[in-house]
Amino acid sequence: MGDKHLSSQFDSELSSVSTRVMEMGGLVESQIRTAVYALAEFSVEAATQVTEAERRVNLMELEIDRELSSIIARRQPTARDLRLLIGISKITANLERAGDEADKVARMVKSIINSGSTRVLPAGELRVAADLASGLLRKALDAFARLDASMAVSILKEDDAVDREFDGFVRKLITYMMEDPRTISASLDLLFLAKSIERIGDHAKNIAEVIIYVVKGEDIRHSSMQAIEAVVG
Question: pTM of the full predicted structure?
Fold first, then answer.
């Protein structure tokens, strides 16, 4: 009876920390959406909201890490439970970094607005890549909530679409800079923006890899897609 009670408490703790991760993920998603809006509309107000949310994201990461350390010290979990706790730590780290990238986008938007270059270059075209990256992160959080390894595999495949958007945008920027050297400074700003958006997709991909590790017990980082699909089955 005592063991069952302890098991029930442990399950409750796991559920609680998982819920906190989803809350953190929702905040980061909101950051990204607001950063995309700031970019599309060149809104200083929206960019400021992203920066203010960054402090809350950082605080949540610290709180979740403390909770994880406490659970591991008290419960000494093994097997899948331990993988889940390790996985949550990795997921929160990737969420925090995705939030950092959203903050970079917001800060760069402010810089572009202050420089007066807002209408010279096709910043709006970045929205496609940004929407793809944001969608990947949302899907990664759904996969975590369900511990769905198959959904995680589809995220790994979809990350290629974000990379293709990034590559296409870089080629356009190079064309702009070659045709009009006066756009070089603003183009470089947009290049940094595009790189941050690509990294958000990378963090979603990292989360997907963690989910497969938690569910299947296999570290599939740096593995071929064929090998990953064989692990997931």
Answer: 0.91
